Amino acid sequence: xxxxxxxxxxxxxxxxxxxxxxxxxxxxxxxxxxxxxxxxxxxxxxxxxxxxxxxxxxxxxxxxxxxxxxxxxxxxxxxxxxxxxxxxxxxxxxxxxxxxxxxxxxxxxxxxxxxxxxxxxxxxxxxxxxxxxxxxxxxxxxxxxxxxxxxxxxxxxxxxxxxxxxxxxxxxxxxxxxxxxxxxxxxxxxxxxxxxxxxxxxxxxxxxxxxxxxxxxxxxxxxxxxxxxxxxxxxxxxxxxxxxxxxxxxxxxxxxxxxxxxxxxxxxxxxxxxxxxxxxxxxxxxxxxxxxxxxxxxxxxxxxxxxxxxxxxxxxxxxxxxxxxxxxxxxxxxxxxxxxxx
Length: 342
Hints:
Shape: globular
Strand content: 15-25%
Oligomer: single chain
Radius of gyration: 19 Å
Low-confidence stretches: 1-45
Number of strands: 9
Mean pLDDT: 88
Strand order of the largest sheet: 1-2-3-5-4-6-7-8-9
Largest sheet: 9 strands, mixed
CATH topology: Rossmann fold
CATH superfamily: Alpha/Beta hydrolase fold, catalytic domain
Number of helices: 11
Distance between the termini: 38 Å
CATH architecture: 3-Layer(aba) Sandwich
Structural class: alpha/beta
C-alpha cells in the first residue's frame, strides 16, 4: 500500500503523541477528585470518581493506577487503559476522552495505569510493569474497588495500543477483549528501525540534545508538552534508533531477542478477540501495522475486526467525524459483546 503522509509541526506532533500517545505492594490513596464532567448512567446514584492506588514499588519509585468508578456495590466490568507516548512520554491521566465517557456511561470501571518509561527503563521491564498491573487488577481489584475481573477488556492508543496487543499473550488469565487504537504489533519492522522520511523533514536533532531530556532515574510520567522527551523521540525516528534505544536490543543483530516483544509474532488460537482502529494517513504509526495484525489474526483464526478511517491521522484527526464516531462506538460495542459473553 502506498501511504501518503501529510506534514504537521512539532507542537502538533507532541500534542498528538502525548494524547494518543509479583510481590505487589498495594498502598491506596483516598479520593483525589470528582469527575464531574462525566454523565451518569441511568442506574448510577453518584458521579464516577477517581482514586489512585500504588500497584507496584520498584526501589523508591511508586508505580500507580487511577481507578474511575461509581460508588456502589455492583460488581462492574473493567476497562484497563494503557496510555500512549512511544513508551517515552505520557502518564495515566491520558485516558482518551471519548473512550472514558462512553465506557463510564456504559457501566465500566476504568483502570488507567502508569508504567516506567524508556529510555531510562528498557522494554522488558516496561512489559513487566504491564503484567504486574494486570495481575494486581485481577487479584486485588474485587476487594479494593469492587470489580468483576472475569470481565476485563484492555485498550490503549499508539504505544498503549502496542501494549494492549502485548497483553494478548503476556498476561493470564487472558482479557475478554482487546481494543488497539492506532497501535502496532511489530517493533522490528523497517518503519521503526530505519530513518523516517517523514520525521527527517524536520530539522535534525543532535544526539547530545536528544539524550539531555531523558537522562536520569526511572520515571513513570512525563507531562504533555514536555519538549525533552519529544526531542528524544524525534531524534530516534530521524535516525532509526527507536527500537534500539527503547528495547535495549539491536534489531539488525538481535532480531530473535525482539520476538517476545512483537505481538504479530505471538498470535495463537488462544489470542483474545481484538478490534484494530487506525487512520489511513497516520504519519506516526503506519496503518499497515494494523493491517498486518489483521492478516495474522485472520490466518490463525482469532475473532477480530479492523476499522480503517480514511484520511485520518494519528489519533484520527482529519477523518470524517461520523466515521470517527462510528469507530469509537464500535470499540464499546466490541468490548460489550465479549464482556457479556464471559
